Amino acid sequence: MQILEDTLRSYRLVHGISDSQAVAPADFTAEYLPEEKRKKLLVCPLSAKPYAPFAYTVGARCPSYPEHTMGLIKSRRAEQDGAANGSQPIRSETNSTSSAAGSRR
Fold first, then answer.
1. Cα angle vertex 16, ends 75, 81, to 5°?
2. Is 103's pLDDT higher than 80?
3. Which of 71, 65, 16 minimizes the C-alpha distance to 45?
């Protein structure tokens, strides 16, 4: 669903579509995504039901499982709250030299 929303964002910016105008996924993905990827993105991966037209301000809705939609909304809110607070994601990796690389003579 996130890829659909990101694609709609690009489409509406290029074509001057308002945030609240609903657009069918088949209409806006044709311009940006290869055919094979489009086929997979236009339907729910768990039920093969097609996504309904949606507005950017509302976002895509899972046609099969409302809890997927709610999970995505909660995830977005958490990201927005983190960005508003100025927090950054924590990286678990560091750019350190391995002990093997440091022991060469």
1. 20
2. no
3. 65
Instruction: Check residue 12 and give its pLDDT.
Output: 93
Beta bridge partners of 43: 50
Better-predicted residue by pLDDT, 85 or 7: 7
> Token digits for 70?
């709610």
Contact between 61 and 51 (Cβ < 8 Å): yes
- Unique residue bearing structure tokens 């990201």: 79
Q: For the chain, give the number of residues.
A: 105
Compute CA 16 distance to the chain's CA centroid, rounded to the nearest angstrom.
21
Q: 55: helix, coil or strand?
A: coil
Token pair, residue 95, equals 């750019």
The average pLDDT across 35-63 equals 88
